[in-house]
Amino acid sequence: MSEVATDRAAAAGFHLMAKPSGPACNLDCTYCFYLEKEALHDVRSTRRMSDEVLDAYVRQTIAATPADQPVLFAWQGGEPTLLGLPFYRRALALQQRYAGGRAVENSFQTNGTLIDEDWARFLSDNGFLVGLSLDGPQDIHDHHRRYRSGAPSHHLVMAALERLQRHGVAYNVLACVDRNSSRYPQKTYGWLKAQGVEYIQFTPVVERIAGPAYAAAGLTLEGPSGNEGGGIAPFSVKPREWGRFLTTVFDEWRRKDVGKVFVMNFEWTLAALVGAPGVVCVHQPECGRALVVEHDGAVYSCDHFVYPEYRLGDLTREPLAGMIESARQREFGTAKRETLPVECRTCPQLDLCWGGCPKHRFLPSRDGKGLNWLCQGYLHYLDHARPWLEMAAALLAAGRDPREIMTRRQPSSLPL
């Protein structure tokens, strides 16, 4: 899935995620929304970013990044390790050639199954921030994350985690929360802590069954423009269960782990409260600054909007800056705010939620604009967590340790 290293990306003027292997992956995860994008590509073409596209991605990303900001490169898939280490060594050489001494940062989202000693050493030596997809203990992880043969993947991901830790690689864990895993918040969070994981991001799995238009394109899942879908996909997390999952984990974190474990979902809420950078695009008023380039050079508005109607152009033929600042992409970004339903506009948690991801706004609303499927869940979590995080923000503003919230039975206003 797609939100690795969002804390680094938030401070930049834009974020262009690369899919160097396209939708190609060695796993066949049941809930994956990207594997089926294979249907959108020419079956005769290879799922491998060419040297021409790689050069354009590196060169144009550097050129389009403001001079006072680090240049951010994000590698994802599919599974980006399928391209092998020589590809990324070429990428680093190009970064060095074009950067002119500017600061460059690389992030990498992987299922971990191919991370051997050489990979771990390379990622460590070159300062990559790695997002490792790991849903929890074996029974939870392997429920969906298997090979096409049905073989499990958990043991290989655990071997990758051990190598990343041993080599001192900066990493976080991206744990997908689906209908099954949402039932086990304490089990999942407690197990991840026991593995020494300090940075965790929980990502809700929400997809719909494709209606006629998207099915005709060879897709089984409904795209964001569709309104004829066949209902919610059976693996999607239910709204209330998403809220309960976050709230249960929050209570455990608040009582025991503030300052020791960093759950990005909570960090984003706190950042929004104090007006700091680092809030994920899902919970910003507008979006449109996090684009994606496919292996063939095609640029799309967003990782979750890789469909023909959201294609902006070709990186090898058009300037990246022009696509980022195009009227079409600006309209895509501002539409998030402009299409907020009345339920959101009158919600007391609007300033922390902002309606969530536009792809998930398909529930009927009173004014017909579309309410987020996860609305009930976000509201449940934010109603519960906000007083505690406001207290933490007040402690920070007063120059005090926010870990003090762990000793309180209920949130309160300062002075304490």
Description:
The protein is an alpha/beta fold. The chain has 15 helices and twelve strands. The protein has a ten-stranded mixed β-sheet with strand order 7-6-5-4-3-2-1-8-9-10. It has a two-stranded antiparallel sheet with strand order 11-12. The radius of gyration is 21 Å and the shape is globular.
How does the SSE layout of this entry go?
Elements: H1 6-9, E1 15-18, H2 51-64, E2 71-75, H3 85-99, E3 104-110, H4 117-125, E4 129-133, H5 138-141, H6 154-166, E5 170-177, H7 185-194, E6 199-204, H8 212-216, H9 239-256, E7 262-263, H10 264-274, E8 290-293, E9 298-300, E10 311-314, H11 320-324, H12 327-338, H13 342-345, H14 350-353, E11 361-363, E12 371-372, H15 375-397
Parallel strand pairs: 1-2, 1-8, 2-3, 3-4, 4-5, 5-6, 6-7
Antiparallel strand pairs: 8-9, 9-10, 11-12
Helix pairs in contact: 2-3, 9-15, 10-15
Q: Total strand count, please?
A: 12
Count of discrete alpha- or pi-helical segments spanning 4 or more residues = 15
Biggest sheet strand order reads 7-6-5-4-3-2-1-8-9-10
Strand fraction: 5-15%
Please state the overall shape, judged from the principal axes of the Cα atoms. globular
Order of helices and strands: HEHEHEHEHHEHEHHEHEEEHHHHEEH
What structural class do helix, strand and pairing data support? alpha/beta
Q: What are the segments in which pLDDT stays under 50 over at least 5 consecutive residues? A: 1-12
First and last CA, distance: 42 Å
Helix content: 25-40%
Question: How many whole angstroms does the radius of gyration measure?
Answer: 21 Å
> Strand count, sense and closure of the main sheet?
10 strands, mixed
Look at the structure and give the mean pLDDT: 94
